[in-house]
Amino acid sequence: MGFRFHSSVRSSAAILAIVLSGCASLAIAPAVNASPAMQPAQTGVAGPAWFFPAIDWASYTKGGRGGELVRVTTLAGDGPGSLREAIAMEGPRIIVFEVGGVIDLEKETITISNPNITIAGQTAPSPGITLIRGGFDVKTHDVIIQHLRIRPGDNGEARASGFAEDAISTASARNLIVDHCSLTWAVDENLSASGPRFTGDTPDEWRAGTSHNILYSHNLIAEGLADATHPKFEHSKGSLIHDNVNGILIYGNLYAHNYERSPLFKGGVHGQIVNNFIYDPGQRAVHYNLQALEWGKVPFETGKMDLIGNVMRAGQSTAEGLPLVMIGGDGDLELHARDNIAVDRWGNPLPERGRYTAGPAKFIDAPEAMPLPAGLPVMPAVAVERFVLANAGARPWDRDSHDVRVFANAAEGRGEIIDSQSEVGGYPAVEPSYKAFDPALWDLDTMLPKSSEALDSGARSRGT
């Protein structure tokens, strides 16, 4: 299957500062196989940057392109000028920020129900936008979310008391991009994709009725809280991709310190996991599970997974001998795996595959990958760790102290799964900042900056 072991995947401890990584040029629509390597491109932004080859992503996932420019001017959880009010508006809209700091959602999830929206966290003044004590639930189409930090946390509540918030979840969403976000301290999943398991009578109808055509790229998906407020007790989870979700690409993310689901594909999922760095998974890293109890009398659908150019490195919380990908339950998985690296804390090879239940599920080797988006740069696995550490998460040019800590720990083999955000410094508290948004500094079709002047950053250290 082309799986390779590698004994030297540790990158430099220094976390590289970048100007902006051009995720906005990614397409989701399947087209042709990707180019074999990533190439740098010149941009109008001064300093080192990686920009993807030009792809007409906006013809497929438009977000708010061409719509009203809506300015967020307050950190209040609701009311005039708030993020919640901007999201609730109807019609195509691009949300930009004239304020930076922390928005306390006070346990009130923001539901994104109206389509054609771009939330451009890259436009905020330093230190950017952080949401606490809540998250997003996406229930519509054509949505782009970029450069936000979302940290639900346990709200200081008692163990198993019932607060079970995702950072970002979906319900029958389609044409969705979540890119360059930092998603940590969720009590359920940090980042998930869900919907009804069965809508209609046929597999095609099921797939159309749940979340589909989704790109999760360049995110930090980390420190899901383990023994916290979830009613099921242990629940440190990275990403749950629910039954029959399809057309999902998980690309260039850092999964760190999650006990399970980095990510989990449930029954019948069709998706691709490409160029991710998975650090310090606990009991499972990547896994697949179709549960007969949930499917009842419905015939099982075979899942499909491409696992290409990923790196898994064990940490202090990782079970001994953990395989990169595991299967459980009752349904089979067609797996195409190539050019992946899996090592323990000392660089010794770990298995590619394993299982974790006594059910009949089995891997089926798929000789060919599903089509990747046209022009998608697929890096060799040996380049992935360094690239992800430098480029993933919200505002890599302006990381906050929590992101600096997680990236540094992943680079240097430190850190562990946590039960509460209080173990690592607690919810952030920063002074609000204000800066008028200047549309002349931005390409409003892609929300990429035209110059470095557009990207605000603080004077804090970004290194280790």
How would you describe this structure to a colleague?
This protein is mainly beta and 464 residues long. The protein has one domain: Pectate Lyase C-like, CATH 2.160.20. It contains five helices and 31 strands. Strands 1-2-5-8-11-13-16-19-22-25-28 form an eleven-stranded parallel sheet. Strands 26-23-20-17-14-12-9-6-3-29 form a ten-stranded mixed sheet. A five-stranded parallel sheet has the order 15-18-21-24-27. The longest helix is centred in the last third of the chain and has 12 residues, at 401-412. The model is unreliable at 1-56 and 460-464 (pLDDT under 50).
* Total E-strand runs: 31
Low-confidence stretches: 1-56, 460-464
Rg over C-alpha atoms, rounded to the nearest angstrom: 20 Å
The CATH class label is: Mainly Beta
The number of distinct helices, counting runs of at least 4 residues, comes to 5
Question: Major sheet: size, sense and barrel closure?
Answer: 11 strands, parallel
User: What average pLDDT do the residues reach?
Assistant: 85
Percent of residues in helices comes to under 10%
Number of domain units: 1
The third-level CATH topology is Pectate Lyase C-like
Task: Briefly note the structural class of the backbone.
Answer: mainly beta
Give the CA-CA distance, first to last residue: 37 Å
Shape: globular
Proportion of residues in extended strands: 25-35%
Strand order of the largest sheet: 1-2-5-8-11-13-16-19-22-25-28
Q: Based on the structure given, which CATH architecture is correct?
A: 3 Solenoid
